[in-house]
Amino acid sequence: xxxxxxxxxxxxxxxxxxxxxxxxxxxxxxxxxxxxxxxxxxxxxxxxxxxxxxxxxxxxxxxxxxxxxxxxxxxxxxxxxxxxxxxxxxxxxxxxxxxxxxxxxxxxxxxxxxxxxxxxxxxxxxxxxxxxxxxxxxxxxxxxxxx
Length: 147
Known about the structure:
Blueprint: E1 8-12, H1 16-30, E2 34-38, H2 41-48, E3 65-68, H3 77-86, E4 95-99, H4 104-112, E5 117-120, H5 125-142
Parallel strand pairs: 1-2, 1-3, 3-4, 4-5
Helix pairs in contact: 1-5, 2-3
């Protein structure tokens, strides 16, 4: 089982305020987690496939978990999720859709495309702390993840 010190979390999020909120909340409980950000769907795919500035595995390690926003520029989260789950080298990485949408059709489609979970973004720092405790309790400590 990976410990938080070895855990790599990739967050695909185009909103810098949401990135900062999540980073601060995560550091409150799980500072040793290696958190990486990409700002859009294209960049997420470049990171995962180690292209361009993400070619070096030392600075762009394979994530143990991906938090994926649905509403991103250049390539939306559904397109990215489809691409991840269609790629034999990536499809074993758990993906949590992490978005503002509560739309039943978005939830249904995310699961049909292979999402491991669907979470609606919290509205406050306190709610984000609570969500991270729940998320980390399972994904960082209890779940057995592939190498």
